[in-house]
Amino acid sequence: MKDNRKTRVAILGSRGYPYVYSGYETLVKEISERMVQRGLDVTVYCHASLFDKKPVTVKDIRLVYIPAIETKSLTQLTHTFLSMIHACFKRYDVILMVNSGNGPFGLLSRIFQIPTAINLDGLEWDRPKWKGLGAKYFKLASKLATKLYDVLITDSYEMEKIYKELFNKNSTVIAYGAYPSIKSNYTKIQRWNLVPESYFLIVGRLVPDNNADLIIEGFVKSNSCRKLVIVGDVPYQDAYSEKVKSIQDERLLFTGYVTDPEELAALYHDCFAYFHGHEYGGTNPTMLKAMGYGCAILALDTRFNREMLQNGKHGWYFQKNKLSIKDVVERAETNTTDIHKLRITAREGLTKMYDWDHVTDQYVEVFERLAKKKNTFT
């Protein structure tokens, strides 16, 4: 008899749904909603403490709320550990784990013979915020992930190469998705006394691996008459972010967090050029937004940024030093025609690889293949 039962997929390791806080939560939202539309039975595990209301389902996505030990270093790990135990006893057809820090928990799904894929993020062990024991843990967790999970998912071809080089493991490349955005309301930037093309833009958390301090210090050395608008902050007291915000120059404008999507869209659309200093990720969601909003992109020269901008076709690069940033600012100022061309062609970089429907189709293909594997166990 043919089995017409829906494939049951559980997603673990994010903050939950609907909770768009960062790249992983956006990924969970976008693919979960689409997978339900494609006929899969989807369950998302959520951090109980983050949700005042706890509906059982939202948009036909099942939700499970799991507690955690609420400390800075243990919240994520304890939540995912307990989620994995719960999910294993529920006997889902497939589990999707996100975050390479959750690598060790693949041992549980392996014991229970539940096929599991893991979405591996950036080079966490290289990030400045993880030093000493933290860096060693992420390196070990990532190595264990390559041994304990049935399918490894990397979000860029360069990240695929790194996992092959470091751990001698193949992975399936499924990028992060994006939306091209054509229009915005330019009046939304007037609250900061800005006009179109009067400013360079940085968007991102004020953490060391995004290099906001370096970009700002290089910009300050330039002869630009434009402003540099810095959108973002960190939700805690932090010496690095305070240092960044203490840099003095009349051309600098710190907006803090901008939560209004129309204001953020206008800031992207109407900037003269967008600075991307992110260093350790694969496919970066902020870069995709900048491309989708039609920004002229000035990016730190990394293997990941070269892949996303197709080796300079959709942006310029700068090196990790103040002089290089000063030079790229002044080059942009004196080559406004070239900057305009970058804005016109930016959205062309959002190939099919970054289309959310295509991204979801690739995940579904992985899950259906893994579900068949489970059927051989049972």
Automatic annotation (TrEMBL):
Domain DUF1972: 8-178
SUPFAM superfamilies: UDP-Glycosyltransferase/glycogen phosphorylase (SSF53756)
Matching Gene3D superfamilies: Glycogen Phosphorylase B (3.40.50.2000)
Domain Glycosyl transferase family: 197-343
Keyword Transferase: yes
A Pfam short name: Glycos_transf_1
Alphabetized UniProt keyword annotations: Transferase
Sample GO molecular function, one term: glycosyltransferase activity
Keyword Transmembrane helix part of the UniProt annotation: no
Classification via InterPro entries: DUF1972, Glyco_trans_1, Glycosyltransferase_grp1
Name of this protein: Glycosyl transferase
Organism (species): Anditalea andensis
